[in-house]
Design brief:
5 helices, Ntn_hydrolases_N, five-stranded antiparallel sheet
């Protein structure tokens, strides 16, 4: 399992992903789930992945190799973010069809995956898409300014309470990290380190990327402050009235 969240805000985009994969308690590993494709000054495309690791790695490898070989179509040739989402969706279908068709001996392996694609191309506005394993997708709107994939339920309440399209990017990243921390506390299948990125509207670069490890002082500070703040607020609530 994994947890990835992406936010589309007025000022840009925020991405945060954990890096744990597991196929049982004896098979836990770390793999990057946030991938950037860019042509600085013209386009930045960010893909986050959750689901079958072999499927998602194949998809990312195909997308990258087709750029390198200048195969048509590829992500560097997409004229709009919608075209890029369509291309990623087609690649998802291609890989899942290939691998599931080759399945033998009655295996019931789940080759499915979900992906988030966000970025900006040329004069177009920055956009964010959730791409399903069937290859179709939906787009973020002002009413739904974020998407989650993977183990999303534990980290959803904080986002729903505080995030709006006008939220500043730095505050949104704080929200994303608290959302992930809530998930870390409740589900062992999500784990450190975290890969995060802020994309500022019209910047056309991906320089604000970083990896957050367990000892990161900012992450330690906000997870402590959030836990203590929740506990203090809870203690101030009026106790449940009992019957006389």
């Amino acid at each position: 399992m994994t947890y990835c969240v992406a936010m589309r805000l007025c000022d840009g985009l925020v991405f945060a992903s954990d890096s744990r994969t597991n196929a049982g308690v004896d098979h836990i590993a770390t793999f990057k789930k946030l991938h950037v494709f860019q042509r600085e000054g013209e386009r930045v495309l960010v893909i986050q992945s959750a689901g079958n690791l072999a499927t998602t790695q194949s998809i990312i490898t195909l997308l990258a190799s087709r750029i390198e070989s200048q195969q048509t179509p590829n992500l560097m040739q997409a004229e709009t973010m919608y075209d890029a989402a369509t291309l990623v969706g087609e690649t998802v279908r291609e890989v899942i069809h290939r691998d599931s068709k080759a399945q033998q001996n009655g295996s019931n392996t789940n080759f499915g995956c979900n992906m988030l694609l966000g970025g900006q191309i040329g004069n177009e506005e920055h956009r964010l898409f959730h791409i399903y394993q069937e290859g179709n997708f939906i787009e973020s709107t002002n009413d739904t300014p974020y998407f989650q994939i993977g183990e999303s339920k534990y980290g959803k309440p904080i986002i729903d309470r505080v995030l709006t399209p006008d939220t500043p990017l730095e505050q949104a990243m704080c929200c994303a990290l608290i959302s992930i921390d809530s998930t870390l506390r409740s589900n062992l299948s999500v784990g450190m380190p975290l890969d995060v990125m802020i994309y500022r509207r019209d910047s056309f670069h991906a320089r604000e990327q970083q990896r957050i490890i367990e000892s990161d002082p900012y992450f330690i500070a906000i997870r402590k402050a959030w836990s203590e703040g929740l506990l203090n607020t809870f203690r101030q609530l009026t106790p449940f009235p009992t019957q006389p």
